[in-house]
Amino acid sequence: MSPNFERELYQGERVFSPIEVERLSPRFREELMRLLYAGSISQMETERIIVEAIKLNRPNVDYEEFLTLLALVIDDPERVSLMIPPNKRGCPEELN
Questions:
Q1: CA gap 20, 29 in Å, rounded
Q2: What is the pLDDT of residue 66?
Q3: Does residue 10 form part of some domain?
Q4: What angle do CA 76, 82, 35 make, to 5 degrees?
Q5: Which SS3 state, helix, strand or coil, does residue 61 take?
Q6: Helix, strand counts (H, E) of the chain
Q7: What pLDDT shows up at residue 94?
Q8: For all residues of the chain together, what is the average pLDDT?
C-alpha cells in the first residue's frame, strides 16, 4: 500500500451534514477544512475531530473547542503546536 494511500483515496471535497452544520461553528468548520486541504491533518483525523465534536452534544462547538479536540485527536504535541496560531499557544500577547 502506498504511503499516500489515504490522500490518494480522498480526492473530493468534504461536505458537512445538516447536523454538523448545526453543531459546528463556521470558524470550526473553516479551520478544519483549512488544515485538511493544507495537508496538515489527514482525512481520518478530520473525521475523528468531527465525531468528537458531535459527541459533545451541543450546538455551535466553537474554535476554542476545536483547538482542544485537535490536541485530543493528534497524539503528537509538536505537530499540534505547529497548527495552532501563536496567540493561542500560551505566549504573552505582547510577544505575538
A1: 9
A2: 95
A3: no
A4: 90
A5: strand
A6: 6, 0
A7: 43
A8: 82
Question: What residues form DSSP beta bridges with 24?
Answer: 61
Alpha-carbon distance of 57 to 80, in angstroms, equals 24
Q: Could you tell me if 25 and 63 are in contact, meaning their C-beta atoms sit under 8 angstroms apart?
A: yes
Model's pTM, two decimal places? 0.77
pLDDT under 50: residue ranges of the chain: 1, 7, 90-96
Residue 93 maps to a domain: no
Provide the residue range defining the domain that includes 67.
Answer: 15-80
Number of domains forming the structure of the chain: 1
Alpha-carbon gap, residue 18 to 20, rounded angstroms: 5
Which pLDDT score, from 0 to 100, does residue 4 have?
Answer: 54
- Are 59 and 22 in contact by the 8 Å Cβ rule? The answer is yes
Q: Which residue has the cell 505537530?
A: 79
